[in-house]
Every structure is written in C-alpha cells, then in structure tokens.
Amino acid sequence: MLIVIAAAIANGLCIGGSRAVNGKLGQHRGALVASFWNHLGGLLFLSLLLAASGAMPRLPAHAPWHAWCGGVIGALFVALNSFALPRLGTMKTALLVIAGQMLAGVLIDHLAAGGGKSAPIQLAGAALIALGLFASRRAAAQASQPPTAARQA
C-alpha cells in the first residue's frame, strides 16, 4: 500500500510540475498550443516507452464510445490549466483544480452508486478546499495593503 501512496504523491508532483511548465508555454504561445505540445510530447514518450518494453498497445475490441473521451478531456484539461495558471498562480490553480476534481468525484460516485450518504461529507471536503483558497486570497490581500496609522503607532 505504501508504494501506491508514494505513486499517488509522485503523480501529484508530476501534475504540479506539468501545470507550471504548460502554464509558462501557454503564457507565451497560447493555451491550445501548449496543450498540443504537451500531448505530442506525451505521445512520443509513451510510444518510446511501450516500444522499448515490447508492449505496443492494440485497439480494444469492445470499448464503449465514452471510453475514448479521455484524450479529449485530457487535452481540454491541459489547455484550461495553461490558460488559468499564468493568471491565477500555481497554488490557486491547483486548489481550484483539486476542488473541481473532488466535485467530479462526488458526482460520479453519487451517480454510480445511485446516491449515497457520504456525498455531504465529500462536498464538505470540497468546500474546505474553497475556504482555504478564500483564506489565502484574503491573507495575500491584507499583506499587500500599506500599514494603517494604528499599526504604525
């Protein structure tokens, strides 16, 4: 289990780094161009990795149509991150993306399980992330204000 947890943390580090790199490229070349280069680089990397391992993939024979939507969603994800990150910063973008992921997880679990009692607690978790973002924005706004006369005395 520790290996799986470490892999999930490493994945989060990769996502954070990827956001920063794609955000910088998106700032200079545009979000869609950043998404294109991200996915082309990923295609080349995975092609080399699979070829080296001898495990070239085959098209699944009976995959439902929606199983093919992951690439489209991934490209949109990278483009949206490349657009938002230079404007919001890495931390704010990451928090908002995590809140969105939690909301999507709650919705998907709710639909898959036909409703459930854990949804309110999961929604509270997403709300806490949003509250953390609000608190960080408020602290940043207060730090950027000049000192008042009461604070100077």
UniProtKB/TrEMBL annotation:
Keyword Iron: no
Keyword Membrane listed: yes
Regions crossing the membrane: 31-53, 65-86, 93-113, 119-136
InterPro entries according to UniProt: YdcZ
Keyword tags: Membrane, Transmembrane, Transmembrane helix
Pfam families for the chain: DMT_YdcZ
Name of the molecule in the record: DMT family transporter
The species this protein was found in: Chromobacterium subtsugae
